[in-house]
Amino acid sequence: MLLVKSAALMIPLIELVQQLVAKPSVTPNDKGCQSLLCQHLKCLDFAIEHFPFAEVNNFWARRGKKSPLLVFVGHTDVVPAGPLEKWETPPFMPTIRNGQLYGRGSADMKGSLAAMLVACRKFIHDYPHHHGSIAWLITSDEEGPGIQGIAKVTEVLKKRNEKIDYCLVGEALVEGGWHVLNWHGLLPVLIAIVLSPLLGLSISWLLIKLTHTFLKDIDSSKTQCWARRAQFIAGALLSLGHGGNDAQKTMGIIAVLLFSTGLLNGHFYIPFWVIISCNFVMGLGTLIGGWRIVNTLGNKITQLTPLSGGCAATGAALTLFAATDLGIPVSTTHTVTGAILGVGSTNGWLNTHWPTIRRIMWAWALTIPAAGLVASVVMILAIPLKFSLH
Question: What is the mean pLDDT of residues 269-290?
Fold first, then answer.
C-alpha cells in the first residue's frame, strides 16, 4: 500500500510505481522491471551494465567517473501474493483507492525504486554538473536466497577496484551481507573504539608519572593548589574535545537528513543552527541526567586527586583531539574511563574498583549489538505495517 500525496513530483512517481507494480516480478523473476528502470536511467546519462546470474537479473548503473560515489541498492522482486481470494483487487493490478495505491510491491520496494528515480531526475535537473558520481545496484534476488544478487555483483566491482564511498544499504545488507559495506571507512572507526580507551590510559599514565617526577621536590600544598587551577583548564579542554567529537556524530546525522530531503540546496554542509542545537542539547543532557555517569567515573573507579584528575582529563582530551583531527568518531566515556584507569594504576591495581570496571566493559560490549538488535526489530515491525511513502 502506498499513500498518494498531491505534489508536483507525485504524478510521475505514481505512474512509475503503477508500471512497476503491474509487472508480476515474483522472486527471482524480474519480468521487465529492471528494463523499465534502465530506460529512464539511460535518459539521465547513466552507463548500464547487466549481470545475469542463473535466473537472477542484476544491473549496475553509474553516472559520472569521479569520487565520491553514492550507490542506491535495491531490488525489483517481490514475495508471492498468496491466496488471491484474500485480495480485494488483483495483486499485480495497481489500484488507487481512497488516496492509497494498492498492489504487491508498492511499499517493498517498488515505491522506493520509483521515488529514488524521481529524486535522481530532479537532482540531476537541478545540478547537472554535480560533484562525484551516482550509481544504482539492483537485483531480483532479495526476497529469495540472496546468492546470485548483490553479493555476486559486489565481488565483480571489488575485482575491478570500483570503490563505493557511500551506500544506502537498508535491506541490501540483509540480502547482500557485509560485502555491500565500505570497510575502508568502517575499519578505522571499529579500531578506534578499542584503541581510544587504551590511548587515553597510556597518555594519562605517562602524564601522572612525569608530573610526580618533576614535582616530587615541591611542597605538596603548593602542588595541590596549582593542580586545582590546572584541573579547570584540563576540564575545559576535555569539554572541548567532547563537543568536537561526540557532537559531530549527531550533527552529521541531522545534516544528512537535511541534505537527503533537499533542504541544503544540493550542497552538503552543517548549518550553524545545527551546531548550536547539538552542543546545547548535549550540555543540557549532561546537566539533567549526566550526574550518574560523572559520579561513576569520578568516584567509583579509583581515588582521584586534583592532580590525578587533571592528568586524566588532559590525557582524554588529547586523545579526543587526535581522533577528531583524523575524522574518526570515538566515545568520550570510553576514553575518559581509560584515562582514569591510567592514573589509577599508579596507586596500584588493588586500589581500582574492578566490579565497576567489569560493569562498564560489559556495557561497552553490549551497546553496539543491542543497538543493531533494536534497529532489526524496528525493521521487522515496519515490514507488515507497510510504511507510507511521502
Answer: 82
